[in-house]
TrEMBL record:
GO molecular function, one term: lyase activity
All residue ranges annotated as the Photolyase/cryptochrome alpha/beta domain in the record: 2-99
Name of the protein in its database record: Deoxyribodipyrimidine photolyase
Pfam families per UniProt: DNA_photolyase (PF00875)
């Protein structure tokens, strides 16, 4: 069994999400585990803005809903390519898969 990663970029919906539906079908077909991936880019954080608080409130709610649905969310932090490289090196079962 491998781990399939579903990268949530801007669409934090678990319902009516075409990419998530395809990833779930792929994982079920191959009897693989599906893990959500969310990238945090520190260059985008504006701590003193209202957007900052709203963003993290929305992400926290998304993680709670995903957890309740049985979908773990793995967070990446830092420069995107280095973060994904570190993820694949630390998790030998993880295979980046394009759907």
């Amino acid at each position: 069994m491998s781990v399939i990663g579903m990268w949530f970029r801007k669409d934090l919906r678990l319902t009516d999400n075409t990419a998530l539906i395809a990833a779930l079908k792929e994982a079920q077909l191959k009897n693989d585990k599906l893990v959500g991936i969310f990238h945090l880019n520190p260059l985008q954080f504006k701590v003193t803005s209202f957007n900052h608080d709203y963003f993290f409130t929305a992400v926290a709610h998304f993680v709670e809903v995903a957890k309740a649905a049985g979908l773990p969310i793995h967070f990446l932090y830092g420069e995107i390519e280095a973060a994904f490289e570190e993820l694949t090196q630390k998790n030998s079962d993880f295979k980046p898969d394009l759907l």
